[in-house]
Structures are given as structure tokens and as C-alpha cells.
Amino acid sequence: MAKNFTVVLQDRPGELARLGEATGQAGVNIQGMCAFTGEGHGVIHLLFDDGAASAARRALDEAGMGVADEREVLVIDVADQPGTLGGLARALGEANVNIELAYTTFGGIKLVIATDDMDSARAALDGA
């Protein structure tokens, strides 16, 4: 299992560095990330192995960066070729699974997906 944390920071220089330093000092490896800004805030999605999630949460809390949301996500091996995303998303759509979040990982070709129906998503992708 993998966990996605959503962390909301102020949109100002150094905040992402502070986040990276906090998890790094705790010995926690970030497996993937998505970050964007809007309305004065930075919204960061962080991927952690399930076994590292509690240490990551503790490190972020101690650094004054609370976790706004924690959820289980699917991490899927995908081919590095045109049409892969379309095929995967189509399989989920046909299973009536709504993708709520998607981003890629570091160091490989994997897609991270959050949905409110993990069981249907897993079943749809087992046959894809």
C-alpha cells in the first residue's frame, strides 16, 4: 500500500525546501510529488510507502506543516508509450471509477491515482 499526504503551505520562497528538509532529516523518502499554487497557498501531494507514513506525518507535524489529508492510493506500473494514460483511464471510466488525483512518481514510470472507489479501481485495472 501507498499513502498520499496533502500538505497546504504558504506560497512563499523556502516552504518546499523546509518540507523536504523535514522529511529528509527524519530519514523518510518521498516516492512521488505533485505541487501547485493558488490563492496564496501551495498544495503539495506527497507519496510515501505505507511503512514510512507515520514517520513522515510526525516529521511534518514537528515542522509545523500539518497533513490536511491522508489517503490510500494506487501506484500503477505504466508503459512509457503513447496512449497508455488513455487506456488506463478508459478502463477506470468504464468501471465507473472517478479519478480524483493523478501524478507520477520519481525514478520510474508509475502513475499514482486516488479515487473514492479503490476496490473497483483495482478490479478494473487487473483486467487492463
Protein described:
With 128 residues, the protein is α+β, with helices and mostly antiparallel strands. It folds into two domains: 2-72, VC0802-like (2-Layer Sandwich), CATH 3.30.2130; 73-126, Alpha-Beta Plaits (2-Layer Sandwich), CATH 3.30.70.260. The chain is built from four helices and six strands; from the N terminus they run E-H-E-E-H-E-H-E-E-H. Strands 2-3-1-4-6-5 form a six-stranded antiparallel beta sheet. Helix 1 crosses helix 2 and helix 3 crosses helix 4 (118-126). The protein is elongated, with a radius of gyration of 15 Å.
Quick structural gist:
This protein has 128 residues and is of the alpha+beta class.
Q: Output the strand order for the largest sheet.
A: 2-3-1-4-6-5
Q: How many strand units? A: 6
- Helix tally equals 4
Instruction: Output the helix-strand order.
Output: EHEEHEHEEH
Number of domains: 2
Class by alpha and beta content = alpha+beta
CATH class descriptor name of the largest domain: Alpha Beta
Radius of gyration: 15 Å
- The proportion of residues in beta strands is 35-45%
**Proportion in helices:** 25-40%
